[in-house]
Amino acid sequence: MSCKKFKIFLSAYIDQEITKDEQEKLLEHLKTCSACTRELKYLKQMKRIFLLKEKKEPQEFFETRLFARIRSKRERLAWRAYLPVFKKSILAVLIFFLLVVGLLNYRNFLYQRPAEIISDLLIDTEIEENFEEELLEIYYGPLG
């Protein structure tokens, strides 16, 4: 067997989950392979660290909060999956709106209405000469 196969057995060997035959083959391999021996020492150290580590009980409602976070993450990811589609459609609607507004303004710009003359707005020449003076008198009273 190759080292690759024996490395799979190392973790099972530490946990005493391999058969006697597999264990004998592994021990024979470890006598000749320094890489697998180092790997076994590393795995034993890791197991010791986890055994010595203080076990903590999860906080109250830990699972409820965990699953809620997972669901919210999924919902956010789903929104992000559709975001590029929404961006393109919003952009298309915006461009269409701008084209319509531009076309309407372009028509209004080209279409000139005939000048309408309203006789009430025309000022006599006599009144026009005294117009400024009359405005000043209206706002500030008699000048003097």
Structure write-up:
- The protein contains 6 helices and no strands.
- The chain starts with a helix and ends with a helix.
- It has 2 domains: 50 residues, no CATH class; 55 residues.
- The chain is 75% helix and 0% strand.
- The chain is rod-shaped and about 125 Å long.
- The protein is mostly helical and 144 residues long.
Throw out a few tags for this protein.
mainly alpha; rod-shaped; 75% helix; 144 residues
Which structural class do the helices and strands define? mainly alpha
Strand count: 0
Average predicted local confidence, pLDDT: 78
Uncertain spans? none
String of helices and strands: HHHHHH
Approximately what portion of the residues adopt beta-strand conformation?
under 5%
- Major sheet details: none
Helix content: over 70%
Number of domains: 2
Radius of gyration: 45 Å
Can you tell me the overall shape? rod-shaped
Q: Number of helical segments?
A: 6
Distance between the termini: 122 Å
Task: Walk me through the topology.
Layout: H1 3-14, H2 20-32, H3 34-52, H4 62-110, H5 125-129, H6 131-140
Summarize the structure.
With 144 residues, the chain is an all-alpha fold. Helices cover 75% and strands 0% of the residues. Helix 1 (3-14) crosses helix 2 and helix 1 (3-14) packs parallel to helix 3 (34-52).
